[in-house]
Amino acid sequence: MDQQYGDITVTLGDDFVATVELHRPPDNYFDRALISALADAYQALDADPGCRAIVLCSEGKHFCAGANLAGGDGLGGGPGALYREAIRLFEAATPVVAAVQGAAIGGGLGLACSADFRVGCPQARFAANFARLGFHHGFGLSVTLPAIVGPQHSLELLYTGRRIGGDEAASIGLCDRLVPAEQVRGQAHALAAEIAGSAPLAVRSIRATMRGHLAEQVRAATDREAAEQNRLRETDDWREGVTATAERRLPRFQGR
């Protein structure tokens, strides 16, 4: 029986794998409520002995296109409030495999990077497009992205804001497995089931050793990220970046 957490459903199989699915198709833009609901789902699964691994996936064309900046800031009371909910994702104890189809852009990339592993396809698209909006990156990418792809790849992705496809993402380690599009969710589930087949107390102990520091690191990073986002949201460049994106044209930044 599915459990519902706002726009998120949780289905727990008899193989100890829970499928946690976002339901805001086609783009699955997030706000504070969605991230809070996702954290609630993770917390409940942590307490369920029938769950040993999670597949994080999304209904529709894209995994997550980030925060919805059209018709509001999409940040549910500001970036600080949003990131307080996001930190709860890193406090969870259960391993997560993200099944990434379509786009994982901006905060959507941050969400994908909150998972332990990412399974993608050649058609997937990844971008830390914040600088192209005149904005500072967020969602803890200061911590998670360098840990996954290294500092130099992180700097290039953050400075340029360029999109990369699944093949390049796999070559730099952003995707752990690259499979045909129709196999993304199935292969993510297979990896989660493989994890769930290991001793659960040992997996949680290993994960606490390897990733237990992330929540506090992300907390410190998002304090800085949120402060810079708030500052830069007052600039002309931010307004130009958002306008240019909405109008599908190159931005004309003035450095003010």
Radius of gyration: 17 Å
**Helix segment count?**
10
- Report the uncertain regions: none
Fold-level CATH name of the domain at 3-181: 2-enoyl-CoA Hydratase, Chain A, domain 1
Strand order of the largest sheet: 1-2-3-4-5-7-10
Report the CATH architecture of the domain at 3-181.
Answer: Alpha-Beta Complex
Mean pLDDT: 95
Specify the structural class: alpha/beta
What fraction of residues sit in β-strands? 5-15%
Largest sheet: 7 strands, mixed
Helix content: 40-55%
- The number of E-state strands comes to 10
- The H-and-E topology, N to C, reads as EEEHEHEEHEEHHEHEHHHH
- Give the overall shape: globular
Structure description:
The radius of gyration is 17 Å and the shape is globular. Helix 1 runs parallel beside helix 2. It has helices at residues 32-46, 79-91, 107-114, 141-149, 151-160, 166-171, 184-196, 200-211, 214-232, 236-246, and strands spanning 3-5, 8-12, 17-22, 53-58, 96-99, 103-105, 117-120, 125-127, 164-165, 177-178. Helix content is 45%, strand content 15%. The chain has a domain at 3-181: 2-enoyl-CoA Hydratase, Chain A, domain 1, CATH 3.90.226.10. The strands form 2 sheets. A 7-stranded mixed sheet has the order 1-2-3-4-5-7-10, with helices on both faces. It is an alpha/beta fold and 256 residues long. The chain has 10 helices and 10 strands. Strand 3 (17-22), helix 1 (32-46) and strand 4 form a beta-alpha-beta unit.
Short description:
This protein is of the alpha/beta class.
